[in-house]
Each structure stands twice: as structure tokens, then as C-alpha cells.
Amino acid sequence: MAQLPIDINDNISAILSKYSDLVRRICFLYLHNSADVDDVFQEVFLKLLQNNSRFESAEHEKAWLIRVTINKCKDILKSFWRKKIVSIESVELPFEDQTDNELLLVVLSLPDKYKDVIYLFYYEEYTVPEMAQLLNKKANTIYSHLHRARELIKQKLGGKEHDYTL
Hints:
- GO terms for molecular function: DNA binding; sigma factor activity.
- By secondary structure, the chain is mainly α.
- The chain folds into 2 domains: 88 residues, Orthogonal Bundle (Rna Polymerase Sigma Factor, Chain: A); 63 residues, Winged helix-like DNA-binding domain superfamily/Winged helix DNA-binding domain (Arc Repressor Mutant, subunit A).
- Helices cover 69% and strands 0% of the residues.
- The chain has 8 helices and no strands.
- It is globular.
């Protein structure tokens, strides 16, 4: 294998350290399976290496990574083999304490269009106009999805508003 120039290696290391947590979190939101997360993680960063275009800014680079990650996750979820596999991680263990993860489980159970906006808004702190551009939707659609997602979360939590602020 050919040796990459040092500046490229440094650039790759910087990008990995900056965005690896972001890519893994998005993957886990969709896939709930560490093996699939690892596969998508590698595919996303391989695609970044193969991408010859320059990004306008760090935000453009981040948005590109988010979009590619979401698309790769959706590709995995659509695959024929994925439908035939039952993940051992999805089997609930009776001794696990589910109360600590209640909000996370509710968010993970949301449809993708709601899960995406909740994640981007609360965890990545994107604004609605930024999310609209990233997800190729109108800002009013994003506002509607956020509102509906919050309502679904409240409904699934049984109206519990004491610990969670949405």
C-alpha cells in the first residue's frame, strides 16, 4: 500500500477526531447495532477520503458528513439481509434498568423524520433553517416535524413533563 503524504494523514486524523462521535451517534440512532455502526462509520469516512471536492467551511463539511451518514444508515436498513437478521443487542434483558433510558428509548422509537429533527436540534444544536437546508425540506416542515416529535414524546412518556424539557 502506498504511503500517504504526512499532511493528508494529519488531515484525516483531525477529521476523525472532530467528527467520529457525531457519525457514531447518528449511526446508533438508526441502526442500534454496533457491527452495523462500525460498517457505516468506515463507509462514511472512506467516502470522505474519496471525495475530491473541497468544502466551503467546517459547517459544510459537517453537514455533508451528517447527510452521508443518514443515507448510508438508510441503505443498511433497506437491505434484504438486514430484514432477516435479529440483533442480540435488541433482545431486552430482564435485569436492565429501563427507567434511566426512558427518554432515549422514546426518541429512538420515533419515525425517522422526527428522530432526525430532534437529534439535530437538541444534540447538534442546529437551527431550523440549517436543518431545512441539510434535510432538503422547507423550514415550516421542520417546525412541524419538531412540534409533532415533541407531542409524540410527551404522549409516549404519558404526559410526564417533570424531568424533560422539550
